[in-house]
Every structure is written in C-alpha cells, then in structure tokens.
Design brief:
The complex is a heterodimer of chains A (148) and B (358).
Chain A (H helix, E strand, L loop, with lengths): L6 H24 L23 E3 L15 H5 L5 E9 L6 E11 L8 H5 L6 E3 L13 E3 L3
Antiparallel strand pairs in A: 1-4, 2-3, 3-5
Chain B lengths: L3 H15 L2 H38 L15 H10 L11 H19 L16 H10 L1 H11 L3 H32 L4 H6 L6 H4 L1 H18 L11 H4 L9 H25 L13 H9 L2 H20 L7 H29 L4
Classes of the chains: A alpha+beta (148), B mainly alpha (358).
C-alpha cells in the first residue's frame, strides 16, 4: 500500500478516508438514541423474548402442568437450584404405581440461567420468561414453588 | 450595532469622577478580572456539558440525564465534588513546581482568553500586536504541562509531558503559518482591526482557496494544541493512565481540566475571529435588506455562535478518529502540514500582491 501512492496521492487518499469516517459519525449523530431511561420507561420497555430472567412452568386453564416428575432437570442443574418433591400414586385401573409431582421448588437466588433444565425437559414443561424485576428484600422470597 | 466601547468609556469616566486616577485604575482592573474569570468559568462549565452531550450523541447515547432537567445540573455537581476533594501531596515530588504547574496552565489560557473579541469593544486586551501576543501567551501553557510531568515523580506523567512538548512545539509552527496567512491578507495584527476588516466579507470568503486551506490546517493544528483526540498522546488514557496530570487531585486537577476545555474554546474563538469574522455579522454584497436584518443580531451572539460551531466541528473530529502514534503525529506535522502551510502562505502572498482577493 505504501508504495502505491505518491505524496499528493497519499494526501488525497487520506482526505477521502477521513471524510468517510466523518460521514459515519455524522449519520450516528442524527440517528435516534438507544439509551433506555429505565425507571421512567417501564410502561414502554421492551425486553427481548429470548432474555432469561426467571424459570416458570406453563400452565393450562385448569392449572395443570405437563411435568412428569422425571427429575432430569433436578439432576442436570449445576447449582442444585431445582428441588422436586414427588409422591407415588397407584392407578386404579391398571394397578401400576406412578410418580406424580408434588412440589416444584425453584431457588432463583442460586440460578445461573444456563437453560440446561429447559433443554433437557422431555415434555417442555418448564421455560424461561423475561420478567426481570426480581429484586426482593428477603432471601426466602427467592425460593419459589412453580406448580399449583 | 451596539458598541460596548461606549459603555466601558461611561464606566471609566464615572469612576474617574468619583475617585483619584490610581484608585479608579485599581477598581477597573478588579472589575475586569472578575468579569473575565467569571466568563471563563461559566464558559468552561457550558463546554464540559456540551462535550458530554455531543460525545453521547456521536455514540448514539443520551449523555447525562438525571441531575436536573435534561442533566443540566450535572456539571455543577461535578464542580462541587471537585472543590471538596483533598489536594494530596506526592512523596518525593518537587513541591514548588508541582503546585505551580496548574496555575501556569490556567494563567496562559486566561491571558489568551482575554484577547478574544466577544463583541465590538468587548475585549480586555487589544493592541497593535494582538495576534503575536496570543501566540506568545498560548505557547507558555506547554511549560506548565512539562513542569507537571517533571515534578510529579511518576513515569507516566513524565512520558506524557515529553510527548506533549514534542507535539505542542511542532504544531505551534503550523498555527503560526496559518495566522500569518491572515496577517498577509489583512495587513494588520490588531484583533479589533482584523474583525473590522471582515465587516464586508469574512476572510474565509475574501481569501478563498488559501484562506480555506489555512482554516483546515489551523483546525488540525489547533486540535493538536489542545491535546484532544486524535492528538491526545499527552493524556492517552489507555497507555499513560492520565498522562501529565496523573498525580493531581482535587482542584489542581480541576485547573488542568478547565484549562483544557478553555484552550479548546480559545482555539475555536481565534479560528472564528481570524477566518469567520469574529463578531462581524454575515454580509453578502448586493443584498441590502438581508444585511440589515443580520445587523440586528448582536455581535456577541455572532461570536459565540461561530465559536461554538467551530467547537462542534472539533468535537466531531475528536469522537470520530482513533489516537495516532507519536511518530505519526510528528510526521504529519513536519512532512505534511508544515510544507502545505508554507506553500499556502506563498500562494496567499502571490494572491495579495496580484490583487486576486475579494
């Protein structure tokens, strides 16, 4: 590159490239600004749907969930965030015993949002939502029961 | 147009009528100093705010928004914080020079500041070698920076100061040549006469190509003089922590900070005085009505408007280009700006001799 330009050519090339840079920042000067003024703009705030803020359990109208209490999420969680309490019920017709979910306990305070539990779930019974305002005054309020 | 000369003469005559000459002189000196320092500080605050907002806009941000409406009180809060901070003394530093350096920097910029013509007659220093005085006064600011680096007992400060010496002394030459172009065109060095000569047309239009080239070179060299990016080697945050003022705290740091911003204002002010007509309104030959309307806008508004436009140009450059290496800075000056400036001066002289100016 150095050899390609003469003294004058180099000056002209420099002015051209400097003008390119200046035009880029000039465009930036007039584009709408990206700053979010958070507490004021809560009404219009748009958080990405893919943002992982909190684990939740999608429920249907009657409050039933799709969880089969297999325990894969619990055993895959690196932090021991998920605790599943189950009980065994005996099916009246077939007479087979079956594990049923009693309590799905999620400790938001130790979750690191890796999404392993969601990925491993065979029934898509759990998912992450983007409700990010999770600050509370008591550690115990972070331990949440997800099922009804 | 309002001539501030009449107001100052009235005050002068009133003071002389109520007290002896010596006392009147002292009172006038105190009044002028008070006004100048007050204007200096207020303009510095305005410029710091402008810098933060303009920088934010170029980076697609909003800048300070929380303190006061639209962040207007942010700089005042920063000033108060600076005022209540402790001035620490550095172990094994040169105490006298260490404490003297910030005052030298501020003194040089206040002296230069007092030469700026804010409106007709609104000028502290005005004499027949005004331009020469501006160059002399502004160039001893580098002494303060060198002393600050030397006396701090810190390798970063020292490197910053040495770089600043190499840079500022080099770019002083280009500034001198650009000012000479205008002196050749106007035939005077007195600032009030320089502005007066631009009432029927600014020098950037009167001197066409050589004046415009000189304006561009002046802006580049002025940017280097004020130690701002892409020429901010003496500070170079990522390499030298803060360069020559690393070891300064409290208001001593504040002096460097304010002086840096006011040097930017002074560079822009001199650019608008020499090239864009100072307080002289925009006149286009042949448009009588337009010129009459332009005359209604006060001279100080014209001067500040032009100056802040030039400041905005310099900020645009500052937030666009990355920092250069020291060898690039020096070769830009000695291999490019200086030869172009010399040729430009020759062209301007030929233009003036042959009468090719407007």
């Amino acid at each position: 590159m150095e050899q390609k330009f003469t003294y004058i050519g180099k000056i002209a090339d420099t002015i051209k490239s400097l003008a390119t840079g200046l035009s880029v920042t000039m465009k930036e000067f007039f584009t709408p600004k990206v700053t979010e003024q958070y507490p004021e703009n809560r009404k219009t705030l748009k958080i990405s749907d893919r943002h992982r803020a909190m684990l939740y359990m999608p429920l249907d109208e009657e409050g039933n969930n799709r969880c089969i209490a297999c325990g894969l999420c619990q055993s895959n969680c690196p932090n021991g965030t998920i605790t599943i309490k189950t009980r065994t019920v005996v099916d009246q017709e077939t007479g087979k015993s079956k594990k049923v979910l009693e309590e799905y306990i999620y400790d938001l305070g130790s979750c690191m949002y890796c999404q392993l539990c969601v990925n491993v779930c065979p029934k898509d019974a759990i998912a992450f939502n983007n409700c990010f305002e999770n600050a509370v005054f008591d550690r115990n309020k972070l331990i949440i029961k997800l099922n009804k | 147009m309002l001539d501030f000369g009449t107001i100052t003469t009235t005050i002068d005559q009133y003071l002389h009528s109520v007290m002896p000459t010596q006392a009147a002189l002292i009172v006038e000196c105190i009044l002028v100093a008070l006004c100048a320092v007050l204007a200096y500080v207020m303009l510095a605050i305005v410029m710091i705010f402008m810098e933060r907002k303009v920088c934010a806009a170029f980076q697609c941000r909003l800048g300070p928004m929380r303190v006061g409406f639209w962040g207007l009180l942010q700089v005042f809060a920063d000033v108060f914080k600076m005022l209540i901070k402790e001035i620490i003394s550095i172990d094994r530093s040169d105490k006298v020079l260490y404490n003297l350096a910030p005052y030298l920097v501020v003194m040089s910029s206040v002296l230069t500041f007092s030469c700026l013509p804010f409106a007709q007659g609104l000028q502290v220093l005005d004499f027949n070698i005004g331009v020469f005085f501006i160059m002399a006064a502004s160039s001893f600011g580098v002494l303060g920076i060198l002393l600050a680096g030397w006396s701090s007992n810190n390798k970063y400060s020292m490197i910053g100061a040495v770089r600043s010496g190499a840079q500022m002394i080099s770019y002083e030459l280009s500034i001198g040549l650009c000012i000479l172009v205008i002196v050749v065109l106007s035939g005077t060095m007195q600032i009030s006469e320089l502005v007066e000569a631009q009432r029927d047309g600014w020098f950037i239009f009167k001197g066409h190509i050589p004046a415009f080239t000189a304006f561009i070179i002046y802006l580049i060299a002025g940017n280097a003089e004020t130690n701002r990016a892409p020429f901010d080697l003496p500070e170079a945050e990522s390499e030298l922590t803060a360069g020559f003022h690393t070891e300064y705290s409290g208001m001593h740091f504040g002096f460097f900070y304010v002086a840096e911003f006011m040097n930017l204002f002074i560079v822009a002010g001199i650019a608008s005085t020499l090239f864009l007509g100072g307080w002289a309104p925009l006149h286009i030959a042949g448009f009588g009505a337009f010129n009459a309307i332009m005359d209604y806008i006060p001279g100080s508004v014209w001067f500040l408007g032009k100056t802040f436009f030039v400041i905005w140009l310099l900020m645009w450059v500052r937030w666009t280009f990355p920092r250069m290496r020291i060898d690039q800075v020096v070769s830009l000056e000695w291999k490019y700006l200086l030869p172009i400036g010399l040729v430009n001066l020759l062209i301007m002289t030929i233009c003036v001799v042959c009468g090719w100016t407007f």
